[in-house]
C-alpha cells in the first residue's frame, strides 16, 4: 500500500466519520459499541472498589467495560440463575484468560468473559456478580427472556448492474458482513464496497475494504465467492443505513443491501477471529465435501470443507494414476479435528489397507517421506468442519508426493472416513466415485453451493452378538464387512478399517469362554504377507486394540499375548483367506435386523488350508481378553473368560437359538444370537 493511497483512505474514513457524527449527533466516544447493555456495577465503590459496565456479547459471553477491582479481597466472577447473588447458588465464571483462581487487580479494563458451557444469558443467567468469599462486591441483573445479540440475516444484494448478485448477507457482528456466493463482473472502472447514512445509496458514502482488506484497488470480479468484509475505523453497522457496490466515478449503484434499524448484533470483540481470506476456487466433490484452493506462487493453499462427524477425516489429493482416478499411489492430505486441534497430515497410499510397517495408507513421515503441509488452521461452525493447509506444488519427495502441474487437468482422489484413536486414517466410508479432475491453475471460479449443515439421522447399532462357549467350542474366524454405521463402530465405539472379524458367521461376537475348557479356532484370515490387505493372522491378547506388529518394543512389553503368536513374535494362526462380501451392495441401513443383513452376504474363500489352534483359558487368564488381527488394529472384539458360565441373562437364552448355516453360503454355522 503506498503512503499516498493510505492517507487517501484515511481521509475518506475520517470524513465519513465526521459526516456520521454530524448526521447522528454522536460524539466519537459514543460510536463505540460494546454489545447489549445489561447494567453497571454499583457506582458507590464499596469493598474491593468494583466498577464497570456489563454488556452481552452474545448468548454466552459478557463484555465488561471500565472494569476496576482493587484485588484487596479474594473474589471471583460468579453467575447464577435464581435468587440473589450467593456463593453457592451460582457457577464460577472464569476470568478473561479462562483462569479460575482469585481475581487480581484491574484498573479500568475491558474484559470479555465466556460463561461456562451450558450456561446462557437467555435461559440460565439472572445475575452476574463479583463475589468475595462471603459477600457480594457488586452485581448486575439480567432480565428474564433476555434478548441477546445475535447474527442477523439481511437478505441478498439487490441485482442492479454489472451482474451483481449474491446469496444471503449476514451481519456477523457490529463490524463484519458475511456475503455468500457473490457475483460481479469486475467491469466497473471505479467500483468499491460503499456504505453510508443517507436513505438510499448515494455518493455521500465511504469505502469499505473488500475481502482482501483493501480499498485501494477497485473491486475484482467475483464468481460466487463467499467473503467477509469489515467496516473501517470505528464505524459499526449501527452507523450506516446501507452497504452497496458502488462506482464512484459514475455515481452508479450496482446493488445494495439495507441495514435494519432494529439491530441487536454482537460487538466485534478482539478475540473474534476474523474469518480467513476466501479461497478463489471451489469445487463440490460430494454433497458432504468441498475443496477450495488458491494457487499462490509455488504453493497451493487448500481448504477442505465437509459435513463430517466428529472423528472423521476428509482426505484430498492427487490420484495415484495419471490417466484415471485410482487410490493406490495417491498423494493425499488427511484432515480432521483432533479434539480442538485441526490437523492436515501428508499421506501416501502405498496399498489399499491400514498403515502397517511401510505399506498401506500411511503418513509420509512413516514411510520415508516428509510431512509437507504447513499453516494448518481450521474452523468448525454449524456442523461444518473446515481445514486449511498449504503445500508446495513440488515437494521434492519423489516417493511419497506427486508434483502438481497447475496447467494440467489432474485426476483427484478424495474420501471421508474415521480416524482411529492413534491418529491414523482408517478405511473411508465415502470416497471418490467419478473421474474427478481439477486444473489447479485455472481462471478463478467458485462452483460450490453452500454446504447446508444437517447431520444424517443417527442409527441404532445392531445388538451385540454373544456366543457362549458351553455348547459351541469351535470358532471359524473369517473376514467380513463392518456392518455400516450400525456395525463395528456403533457396537464397539471404536473406529474400524472397513473390515472386521466374523466368528461363526457373526460380526465381532463377544465370546464367553470357560477356564479349563478347550476351544478350537479355525482361522481363515489370509496367510500371504505379500498382500497385506488380505493378511489377518488371529491372536488373543489383553490389548483392546490389536495390531501386534504395529507396536513398538516398549508397547509390546505392556501387553500379554495368550495365543496365536510364538516366542519369536511371529503369528501362528494364518490360514487361507475367506471373506463375507455384499455382492448386491451394503444393506446395513436397509436391513431390519442383523440376521436380515447377514443374509445379504456371501462367503468367498481362496484355495488353501485353514490355520487351527486350540486355546485353553486358565487361572492366569484375565476375565476380559480380546481376539485381534496380528497386522491390523480394530478387527476383533471381546472374550469374557469365566469360571462358570453365566445364566441366560447375557442374551443367549435358548429362545434366540438361530441356525446361521442357512444364512451364509458355504458354511454350516451354529450360533446363538440375540437379534
Ligand atoms: C504460512 O503463513 C505465513 C504467515 O502468515 C506466511 O508468511 C507464509 O507464506 C505461509 N506459508 C505458505 C506456504 O503459505
Ligand atoms: C471342532 O474342531 C475339531 C478340530 O477340527 C473337530 O475334531 C471337531 O469335530 C469339531 N467339533 C465340532 C462340534 O464341530
Ligand atoms: C483339552 O485338550 C487336552 C489336550 O488335547 C486334553 O488332554 C484335555 O482333556 C482337554 N480338556 C477338556 C476339558 O476337554
From TrEMBL:
Note the CDD domains from the entry.
Answer: DOMON_DOH
Protein name from the UniProt record: Protein Skeletor, isoforms B/C-like
Q: List residues of the DOMON domain.
A: 287-417
Tell me which SMART domains the record gives. Answer: DM13, DoH
Extent of the signal sequence = 1-29
Q: Where is the DM13 domain?
A: 39-145, 155-260
Xref: InterPro entries: At5g54830-like, DM13_domain, DOH_DOMON, DOMON_domain, Spindle_Org/Thrombomodulin
Could you list this entry's UniProt keywords, alphabetically sorted.
Membrane, Repeat, Signal, Transmembrane, Transmembrane helix
Instruction: Name its species.
Output: Branchiostoma floridae (Florida lancelet)
- Source taxonomy: Eukaryota, Metazoa, Chordata, Cephalochordata, Leptocardii
